[in-house]
Amino acid sequence: MLPTDRAEQVTITLVTALHECPKCVKCEAMIGRLQQAHPGGIDFRKVPADAPEAADYGVVMPPMVIVDDFIACAGKVPIESAFAKLVAGQLAEKQNP
C-alpha cells in the first residue's frame, strides 16, 4: 500500500560535501534504491553542508544521513542492510500507528 500523505512518509535528508565526494554519491545511490523499494514512502532531500538546514544539526560531517530528524550516520556510508531496516521500521511505524 502506498502512503497517502506526507505524514506516512519517511523524510531522508542527505547532507553532502560542497564538492560531492564518493561517499556522498554512494549514499545518494543507496537512498535511490530505498525509494525504489518503497514507492511513495520516502521524501528525499539533498542539501549542501553549508545550507542553514544542515547547520540545524550542529557539527556537519558529510555525508550525513538524517532520517526524520534523527542523525542516522555521519562521515561515512551507512551499512545498507541496517539502514534499509531502519527506514522500513520507520515506515511501518508511520503507516500503522
How large is the radius of gyration? Answer: 13 Å
Q: What string, H for helix and E for strand, traces the elements in order?
A: EHEHEEH
Distance between the termini: 15 Å
Low-confidence stretches: none
Mean pLDDT: 90
Taken as a percent bin, the fraction of beta residues is 15-25%
Total strand segments:
4
* Main sheet record: 4 strands, mixed
How many helical elements? Answer: 3
Helical amount: 25-40%
Q: Give the structural class.
A: alpha+beta
Side by side, the strands of the main sheet go 2-1-3-4
Q: Give the overall silhouette.
A: globular
Write the layout of secondary structure elements.
Elements: E1 10-16, H1 22-37, E2 42-48, H2 52-55, E3 64-67, E4 70-74, H3 80-95
Gist?
37% of the residues lie in helices and 24% in strands.
Structure description:
A four-stranded mixed beta sheet has the order 2-1-3-4. The model has no long low-confidence stretch (mean pLDDT 90). With 97 residues, it is an alpha+beta fold. Strand 1, helix 1 and strand 2 form a beta-alpha-beta unit. It contains three helices and four strands. The radius of gyration is 13 Å and the shape is globular.
